[in-house]
Amino acid sequence: MKKMTQKNTFHALSGFLFPLAFLATSQAYASDFITGEQQLSVKEKRAGEAYYRADSKWMIYQAEVADDNPFYQIFLKNIESGAVTQVSPGTGKTTCAWVHPAQEKVLFSSTHDDKEAKAKMAAEIERRNAGEQKSYAWDYDEFYDIYETGFDGKNIRNLTNTLGYDAEASWSPDGKLIAFASNRRAYSGELSEEEQALFKANPASMIDIYIMDADGSNVKRLTQTKSYDGGPFFSPDGKRIVWRRFSDNGREAEIFTMNIDGSDQKQITRLNAMSWAPFYHPSGKYIIFATNLHGHRNFELYIVDTDGQKEPVRVTDKEGFDGLPVFTPDGNHITWTSDRTPGKKGLLFHGKWDHQKALESLALK
Which positions make up the signal peptide (predicted)? Predict the structure, then answer.
């Protein structure tokens, strides 16, 4: 494996030069950061986007399992026993789950209340059976709402109940707030003619970051762009939010952070690539994210300091997709989604994380 130097490997690709004083001085192999790699998901047709409760006793994730539903459903796993419970209704599409930091309840987005949900399931099955191939594109279904339910999948409650894409939600560390992404403005009648034309051409263009109280009240819009802002997660201290902002043409994305009131929006990466799925390390020292800097379909994991002053460091180097990374609450392990399996389907992978190596590679104390 080729040893990476922080200076000559990165700058030629990014076209952005960091001040020399900010360059990390240590050399590192990508394989130094994750050891003991193992595949977590086995029985699922595909699985991904796993997150942990604050006590590390529970993991929530999305997976395609049933033959009669070609879309993801949400599953909760007891880490100690290995027992898995489906917590979503089983109809329609689901995405973006989260576990409450202290209580026995979960968040996820779902379209199960869409009257056409079953018809859309049947149409997707028919398309697949016909062998029809289509390029990957995320579905900003306007019937996505954010739901809360117990660990048994009962007492489900709609927290948004608004036409438009409401998804990508996560609780704050104290469980009092929820950050999420939405294009609800596009369905409110308040768009200008220019915005309406933009939305018709690109439904993602009107997606912004919102924040609300945990019961769904006091909804506030935090970003004000005409491009996609999404995938928000709170910092370990609950004071900031990290997210991804797409370029106007949708071909590039960069990592940003801001205060939870929307102030002090700060760009963290400048890679001129598709950089997304950012997540804080529990130490609060750095952020991990995925980027296709090395090829359109070759997403790799990178880390960067939370101020964006250091040069990002690569931590995976296998062909294909590596993305949606998340650390365990103690910061000692990492779980992510990868298609490095036969058949190229996305599944969950897990490994031991070297926090000290991460600090050293970014020249952090």
Answer: 1-30
